[in-house]
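Reopening this ticket.

The earlier resolution said the output was attached, but the attachment link was broken on my side. Pasting everything inline this time so it's all in one place.
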Amino acid sequence: MENKRLILNIGRQWRSGGREIAMRLSKILGCHFYDKEIINLAARESGLDEGVFERNDENKSFMQSIITISTPFVTDASFFKNNFSQENLFRIQSEAIRKAASEESCIFVGRCADYVLRDFDNVLNIFITANTEDRLKRIAQIEGCTDEDKAMKMIEQHDEQRSEYYGYYTGKIWGHGESYDLCVNSSILGIEETTDYIVEFVKRRFKL
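Inline output:
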């Protein structure tokens, strides 16, 4: 596998196990793992503070809320065109993704990487879903939230943010099969066997 550069882009419902699956894939396939790490890379490349990228991370509405809360008297439209605008932050992050993908085999989690790398070779775009029951269990384990109503609101909020972010920058529909090469429900086989299934899919797809 080391002779062929591979790029896997993982989209995922919140608390579907997508991130854990991506981490497992990175170890098995020998690919560099990028999730929040891409924020660090973009910050280093641009010289901007990581916090600026974190506030924009998969949430297209953050700049409006920042202006409302922190700079209520800003009226100059050019403010949105400087290096701190959403579009420029997305561009910088996208350049970091493309730079990493051009240098080594990578697995990217979220951040519209499938769209950013649409003209790259040896790319596989995957979307991970899970049954609501399993997502609620994972929320209880990770977030410590056992209130089902509250947990459902968390699911709806996070998924909505990711959907809006993805749609805003790509013009495609987040989570719909036509946007990806493979869509998998991690509840059917579980995290480990879903990982194994994807590994086998990758081997067949790229004749490894």
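Reporter confirms the inline version is readable. The beta strands are 7-12, 32-34, 106-109, 123-129, 182-185. The first strand starts at residue 7 and ends at 12.
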